[in-house]
Write a structure and sequence with these properties.
heterodimer, A: 625 residues, mainly alpha, two-stranded antiparallel sheet, two-stranded antiparallel ribbon, 4 strands, globular, B: 853 residues, 3-stranded antiparallel β-sheet, 29 helices
Chain lengths: 625, 853
């Protein structure tokens, strides 16, 4: 076995050993580096980058060295600059109100631009696509320099279709911040990795990826329900195409299943959105689809429950929650690696994000009334049932898909429990799941590219021919089972602790917390089981004896995930601090509404228009005056 | 020098901890990533330097701690270093609970830290030679260094989550090292088993964490200690409701589940049981001990370091660390003591008959850990912890000695399993004098030869087991006793003492058996069987007979010889400590060293003075009489072993085994507990998972996806029949359609929308082609007008509590009429018509639009 089974073990020839002189030299350099980081401010990232570049094992060329060095430098810079309590030297960044539009517009414009590139020039296509994605990633940096607090930032709001009161309204708070960053972070990695295995219809592939990225970012920042719905549906199409065109043998069935499940939910959501908008019109005289307007509508219990159900069904399908989850294993199994990564890492988060933002934000009373029941579903149907199902899968991708059901059970449980700790944990766990499951899907893709099978039984003893691969797989596994020090632990711990403290789950908060903790055992059961079967023991299948270890492209694609696993695990405060404010706002909003009309029969009477929430951005009508 | 130390590293920013922790981590990283490139010499240098520097730093810290504790008499002093803020969770009522990456050294963790780095260094040194020819040399030291780092995090962590980082970290390293030779499937399986058993324990720890966060509002040692009193409360609401779950109410069909009065336990008991589960996992106690014997699949230095000296004692460390929580619940204390005593006895019975040298030592470790649990369970925290301390030396020495023997045997036999087999050994004292003498020293310590370290620590535990008794905190005694809370029975002390003495007797017997069969008599390793013969010998009818060398052949090879110095030096040092460390024992003031009890006194001071540990009347005077049990155990066990294996040359042992063949076999097969677990718990989880997977495939996916798609397909099929391209059918359908529409227009539709403001009802009739309306608005049963007019609106006023029926009649252009009654009522307290009015308002709007179109 080999967690750190060393980036060199599979080298064909034994490398020359270093002499004493060289060792001493290395030591001196290392000491110099340490001193530089200690006494020269800002030197740490550079020293780290140079160090990593120098120490990458010899068989890799500059194509691996430089990206790895840059990545480690950037991660170091990230940690240093965002360290809580670090004083920002410069004046606070001007909140460019168009930044979010750039973020979602760049990929969409890029997708259109790609259409005009010649289909034959594959290199140009790939470079353009990656370039646009990296620029988008760079454009998320200003988001990080703004202290998030409780408010919404980068607010951009204008009337788009005046007749129906449809706004183009985008804004960002601490909850969507990390999800936007996650999207911009994961998509280029998935794209880069996919260029190694996708070799047909590159142009269409690039178009789909860019469109998908734009739509996903858009869905995370849209603050107008109509706009949100457009992005929500827009991301369906590229993913449908990706599964259907580049997928595995049973791709059409999987693509259709994915599409129908998701569509079914979203149509109901559309009806609910329209109803809500018309109710607002009834009460205020103006038609509006704006989130902060619709948030003011207080509907009587029956109506609210129906609308809440329409929204929640749509999100629960996306998450997915039991018993609506069966599209996920099929979609994951058939999707190409890049698609699986994006689907697991980002798209599923739209379900959890949507529940937190819209179901909880627009219908707090209904959410609170049903939280205890749904938490039971999340624990029994998600965490425990998902884990047990995962254990019995013989296809690695299906296994990881079911593990997603279990992990997102934690996220949903945290949202239902609605304590500060559980909500922060949930949002962090969304990012964590993106990172560790993204890494796992990439890793499964590596072995799929070599053997064109994902059946566990086909493998065995892979640690011998592919030691680096085995080490990386074990790291991702440990993150997935929530080993302390990796990202998974922080999220699960916060969710479980927060759940126990919750007063929203009736008498059962303790039982739910214990159930969620049992999921930790089951997680180890299925993940270590698959690791043991795939990597340890003798090599049972002679085909596997000479499988090549991970190549440069795969290392570069996996490195950021591995770095993120440890950065989040060790320094979660960087991530939790911006979430904190937004989460307490959500909680306060929820609390205020519940206290005004407490469950179980929370509100009877005609629809009412409440005051605008204090932290909501200034309304457009007021802005104009 | 100490002054300089204190100035450089102030107690509240004791950055030296960074060195103690950082060096092993650095070693792990460097050896792990660049190990092969560096070469074995550099790896060895790195690994030894890392642990060596860490040990020196630990010594300095200990010195600093000593100085500080002299300066502040009788205080619980700590050296603290906060590395960074880790995260913030929230407790009861959303109160934030900060969790920092903070390390602290106090007397308890200080001693443990010295043991880990000190014994760790010796074992590293030993391993440099033991693992010299292994392919994975660098990988091995990377893991081993990582283990030391994790163990130090476990010990030095200042709060429960940080301890948990180390707790799982050592579990991970143990997993990796057990499966170090991963190409053998059994090794990997043993590693997984260890990790899973530990995970079950970790589940307990997670539960303990959220309970403590809830009740104490803090997760660091000081905060928990300060608020531990919240864990016991006579308040019924503050108790943990076990049944009904969470304190709910069952009604309806489930009401038969509702007990008359809810079954509750104090929070202290809940926390204690959860922690205890964690400790049984890590410290291999009943019921989670099964992983430790299998863990011997790892290299022997690993067995010595992780599975004997350090990691497995983490459970006892945690009980000591959280002693203030444990003592609050006599039930948990009794559980700890009983589990400890039971494990000590049970594991000892298995060790009596094993033939694998490492298996004997493994079960011996489980048994000794049981003794430690017994000690801490009866409130003798110092004694229990002292046994951790002495055990670290003698068990490490025994394992390393065994490793030395295996090393020598392997050089001769070249077979992993046979070179650990006692039946192939014998007479090794001639060939390996140093190993023999050190092994003898350590054996003397573990069997409790008076004067050696093991004697003092074990004796103290047995004594305290007899005289101590757990009680409720005096402040709560009255209330809890009224609630019929658990009281440990008075006969418990003597029973625990008896079980302990029995286990100690067995310890003496099996350790002497091991020693005699390894080092005395004739060497049996000249002849070895081929693997098939060995298998036949194991499973055949002569299965458990030790002789029967008929099929065996002489294998050429060198005679066993003494191991090189890096292996023997650690043995000598450890043996010396095994024999003499007892003089650090409570009560002896030799070499001007402060006795251990004095050292640890501030740590357990509050607990001891809290009045929760009562002493049997007159118990203080029983120390010497009760010591007879320990000495007797030593004498009896040793003499029986000598008589059986030396004087009578194993004949009595074989005779007993032949007399009770089934019992012997059962003990040899470890009471078949593994099989029991497989048949019950594992089988249950497995079938549950099978059911879940099948349910998912056939029910969830089957019904939800397949049935709903089947419905759609069926509808499609039905409609397809109509779209058949035959013009007659289309024409017929057109006729049906037009007739329906025509009928709709021919028949009038009396519809109305009612709106109300303060008792004034406005009724608007729906429009239609050529409609005329006739109203009965006053409710007298007759139309208000004879003729139909185009008056589509009427107004009605109702007072509170009144109701009325309005009749509307509609006549259309074809002269057909239709009527409908609209009942209005205005209830007194609340206008009911307003209820759900949005629903009522929006729907008509749609209808009106439809009408206009």
């Amino acid at each position: 076995m080999s967690v750190v089974d060393t980036l060199h073990a599979s080298q064909p020839e034994v490398p020359s050993k270093l002499g004493t002189g060289q060792l001493v030299g290395l030591g001196i350099l290392a000491v110099l580096g340490v001193l530089a980081t200690r006494y020269v401010s800002g030197a740490l990232p550079i020293v780290l980058a140079v160090g990593v570049a120098a120490l990458v094992p010899r068989r890799h060329g500059a194509g691996v060295r430089i990206p790895l060095a840059v990545m480690s430098g950037l991660f170091a810079l990230f940690v240093v600059r965002l360290w809580p309590g670090t004083e920002v030297q410069e004046a606070p960044v001007e909140e460019g109100s168009k930044l979010l539009s750039w973020l979602l517009g760049l990929p969409i414009a890029g997708a259109l631009a790609v259409l005009f590139l010649p289909r034959q020039s594959v290199k140009t296509l790939k470079a353009t696509t990656l370039g646009i994605m990296l620029v988008t990633l760079a454009a998320t940096v200003p988001l990080l320099s703004v202290p998030m607090g409780r408010a919404f930032h980068f607010n951009q709001d204008f009337l788009w279709i005046e007749r129906f009161g449809i706004h183009y309204h985008v804004a960002l708070d601490g909850i969507s911040l990390w999800l936007v960053v996650l999207t911009a972070f994961v998509v280029p990695i998935a794209t880069y990795a996919s260029f190694g295995s996708i070799d047909t219809r590159i142009k269409d592939w690039c178009f789909s990826l860019l469109l998908l990225e734009g739509a996903m970012i858009g869905a995370f920042v849209a603050m107008d329900l109509f706009l949100f719905y457009i992005f929500w549906e827009l991301m369906l199409i590229p993913m449908y195409v990706m599964i259907g065109v580049w997928g595995g043998s049973n791709r059409i069935m999987a693509a259709v299943k994915f599409f129908l499940y998701t569509m079914f939910g979203s149509v109901l959501m559309l009806v609910a959105i329209l109803y809500l908008a018309f109710s607002y019109q009834k009460l205020s005289g103006e038609l509006s689809f704006d989130y902060f307007d619709l948030q003011r509508v207080l509907l009587p219990r029956e109506t609210q429950l129906w609308l809440w159900a329409a929204f929640t069904l749509s999100f629960a399908i996306k998450v997915p929650m039991f018993p609506l989850h069966t599209w996920l294993p099929d979609a994951h199994t058939e999707a190409p690696t890049g698609g699986s990564v994006i689907l697991a890492a980002v798209m599923l988060k739209l379900g959890t994000y949507g529940y937190l933002r819209f179901s909880l934000g627009l219908f707090p009373e209904a959410s609170a009334e049903l939280a205890a029941n749904l938490a039971g579903v999340a624990v029994l149907g998600g965490i425990l049932y998902g884990a047990l199902c995962a254990w019995k899968q013989d296809d690695v991708k299906r296994l990881v898909a079911y593990s997603s059901v279990a992990h997102l059970g934690y996220v949903m449980l945290g949202i239902f429990a609605a304590t500060p700790s559980s909500l922060e944990g949930s949002v962090l766990q969304m990012v964590n799941h993106g990172v560790s499951t993204g890494a796992l899907f990439l890793l499964v893709g590596v072995v799929y590219d070599r053997r064109h099978t994902r059946m566990v039984d086909e493998f065995g003893g892979l640690a011998k021919p592919m030691p680096v691969y085995a080490a990386l797989f074990v790291v991702a596994t440990l993150a997935s089972v929530g080993l302390p020090g990796t990202n998974g632990f922080v999220g699960e711990f916060l969710v479980i602790t927060g759940t126990f403290m919750s007063n929203k789950l009736g008498h059962f908060s303790g039982v739910q917390a214990v159930g969620a903790a049992i999921g930790v055992i089951l997680g180890a059961l299925y993940m270590l089981g698959v690791v043991q079967k795939m990597f340890f023991g003798p090599i049972t299948n002679p085909v596997n004896e000479h499988l090549p270890d991970v190549n440069g492209r795969e290392i570069v694609a996996l490195a950021p995930f591995v770095l993120a696993i440890f950065v989040i695990g060790l320094f979660p405060k960087i991530f939790l601090d911006p979430i904190h404010g937004a989460v307490s706002r959500v909680r306060d909003d929820l609390q205020a509404r519940i206290e005004a009309s407490p469950p179980p029969r929370f509100y009877q009477g005609a629809g009412k228009l409440l005051a605008r929430r204090p932290e909501a951005p200034v309304a457009l009508a007021v802005q104009g005056k | 020098m100490t002054n300089a130390l204190m100035t450089l590293f102030p107690p509240d920013a004791f950055t030296l901890v960074a060195v103690i922790l950082g060096m092993p981590l650095l070693g792990a990283l460097i050896n792990g990533i660049w190990g092969k490139r560096l070469g074995n010499n550099a790896v060895r240098l790195m690994a030894l330097t890392a642990i060596g520097v860490s040990f020196v730093a630990a010594l300095l810290s200990f010195l600093a701690l000593d100085t500080l504790s002299h300066a502040r008499k009788d205080e619980h002093v700590r050296l603290v270093w906060t590395a960074w803020e880790w995260m913030t969770t929230s407790g009861k009522d959303s109160a934030p609970i900060g969790i920092d990456v903070r390390f602290s050294i106090d007397a308890l963790s200080g001693v443990m830290m010295l043991v880990v780095t000190g014994v760790g260094f010796l074992i590293h040194l030993y391993a440099t030679s033991y693992m010299e020819h292994d392919e994975g040399f660098a990988r091995f030291f990377a893991y081993l260094n990582l283990f030391v780092f994790s163990m130090l995090v476990l010990i030095l962590g200042d709060n429960l989550p940080l301890l948990f980082v180390g707790w799982e970290g050592v579990g991970l390293c143990s997993y990796l090292l057990i499966g170090f030779w991963y190409q053998k499937a059994e090794n990997a399986a043993a590693g997984k088993k260890a990790f899973l058993a530990n995970r079950i324990g970790d589940f307990g720890l997670i539960c303990a964490m959220f309970l403590i966060a809830y009740y104490c509002g803090s997760l660091d040692w000081k905060g928990i200690a300060d608020h531990a009193s919240n864990l016991v409360s006579s308040h019924e609401a503050a108790q943990v409701h076990v049944w009904p779950l969470g304190g709910g109410q069952y009604t309806g069909v489930l009401s038969f589940l509702q007990p008359k009065s809810p079954f509750t336990i104090t929070a202290a008991t809940a926390v204690g049981l959860a922690l205890l589960l964690g400790c049984t996992g890590k410290s291999a106690q009943i019921p989670l001990y099964v992983w430790l014997p299998d863990a011997m699949a790892g290299p022997t230095p690993v067995s010595a370091l992780i599975h004997a000296a350090t990691m497995v004692t983490a459970g006892i460390y945690l009980v000591c660390r959280m002693s203030f929580v444990f003592v609050l619940s006599p039930f948990v204390m009794t559980m700890v003591a009983c589990i400890g005593a039971a494990t000590a006895l049970f594991a000892a019975t298995i060790a009596l008959v094993q033939n694998d040298i490492k298996k004997v030592l493994a079960y011996s470790t489980v048994s000794q850990l049981g003794f430690m649990f017994l000690g801490v369970g009866v409130g003798a925290f110092t004694a229990g912890f002292f046994h951790v301390f002495t055990h670290a030396f003698f068990k490490a020495c025994l394992f390393l000695g065994a490793g030395s023997v295996i090393h020598a045997m392997h050089a001769r036999i070249h077979d992993g399993d046979l070179s650990q087999d006692l039946r192939k050994m014998g007479g090794l004292r001639k060939y390996m004098p140093l190993t023999h003498w050190t092994f003898l020293g350590a054996t003397a310590a573990i069997i409790g030869l008076p004067g050696t370290s093991g004697f003092f620590s074990k004796d103290e535990i047995l004594f305290k087991a007899f005289i101590n008794r757990s009680e409720y905190h005096p402040a709560l005694k009255g209330t809890l006793e009224r609630l019929h809370a658990f009281q440990p029975p008075t006969w418990l002390g003597p029973v625990l003492y008896g079980v302990g003495v029995a286990a100690a007797t067995m310890t003496a017997f099996y350790m002497c058996r091991l020693y005699f069969r390894t080092f005395w008599g004739e060497f049996n390793g000249w002849k070895v069987g081929t693997p098939s013969e060995v298998a036949a010998q194991e499973h055949g009818e002569h299965g458990h007979k030790d002789h029967g060398n008929d099929h065996l052949q002489i294998v050429a090879g060198p005679a066993p010889k003494e191991s090189p110095w890096p292996m023997t030096v650690p043995l000598v040092i450890l043996a010396a400590f095994s024999v003499f460390a007892g003089f650090l024992n409570p009560g002896f003031h030799i070499f001007a060293l402060p006795p251990m009890e004095h050292w640890l006194e501030p740590v357990f001071k509050d607990v001891m003075e809290s009045g929760t540990i009562a002493v049997r009347a007159g118990g203080e005077h029983l120390e010497f009489p009760l010591a007879a049990g320990g000495v007797g155990a030593f004498l009896v066990g040793t003499s029986v072993a000598y008589w059986m294996y030396i004087a009578q040359k194993r004949k009595p042992a074989d005779a007993i085994a032949a007399a009770f063949p089934r019992l012997h076999r059962l003990m040899l097969e470890k009471w078949r507990i593994d099989e029991l677990y497989e048949a019950t718990v594992l089988a249950a989880v497995d079938s549950l998972a099978e059911t879940a997977a099948a349910f998912d495939q056939w029910i969830v996916d089957g019904i939800l996806a397949k049935v709903s798609s089947a419905v759609v397909v069926a509808l499609g099929a039905a409609l397809r029949v109509l779209q058949n391209g035959v013009v007659h059918v289309y024409a017929a359908m057109m006729v049906v359609g037009l007739t329906s529409i025509g009928w709709f227009f021919v028949v009038p539709h009396p519809e109305a929308v009612v709106t109300e403001t303060a008792g004034d009802y406005v009724i608007v009739a729906g429009p239609g082609m050529g409609y005329g309306y006739r109203w009965d608005a006053d409710g007298n049963g007759r139309p208000d007008t004879e003729t139909f007019s185009d008056q589509a609106t009427v107004r009605v006023h109702l007072d509170l509590g009144k109701s009325q029926v309005v009749r509307l009649e509609v006549k259309n252009a074809f002269g057909f009429t239709a009527g409908r009654e609209i009942s209005l009522s205005r209830p007194k307290p609340e206008p009911t018509l307003e209820l759900g009015s949005l629903g009522g308002q929006i729907a008509p709007m749609g209808r009106q639009n439809g009408g206009q179109n």
